[in-house]
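Summary for the lay section of the report: proteins are chains of building blocks that fold into shapes. Here we show the chain for SsrA-binding protein and then a coded description of the shape we predicted for it.
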Amino acid sequence: MEKTALKTIADNRKARHDYFILESYEAGIELTGTEVKSIRDGGLNLKDSWISIDNGELFIKQMHISPYEKGNIFNKDPLRTRKLLMHKREIMKLLGQVKQDGLTLIPISVYFKGSRVKVQVGLCKGKKQHDKRDAMAQRDAKRTIDRELKMRNR
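The coded shape description reads as follows.
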């Protein structure tokens, strides 16, 4: 059993704020050489990206990969639609849940697994405004409790 190093490239923190993540899956992504080089340089943004299922295939949309500086004619459009690679039965399972339960697919993070670029796909349910306020209140309460405990232990 070989060990592969995971190196996170980008995290979609906005997704964690706006959605409840019910399940997560790992998918490969179809990229060109200059896109991989640009990703290695840190030129990736997941902020407004989302995933759709068309004709039984997964596509990631609005993921911004900056053009590679030395790529000249080989650079592609930074916001082009990119294909995600998953097993057909996993895609069909996701399609059923998205259609039936009204859930959505959001990229949570992009990382290197060995030398390959992987995308963590989250099956998510949208948060309402009051859910976001509750989460912020819980985080603030936890921070206050931790601060008090730290002061007492001194």
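Put simply, here is one thing we learned. Residues 6-127 form a domain with the Small Protein B; Chain: A; fold (CATH 2.40.280.10).
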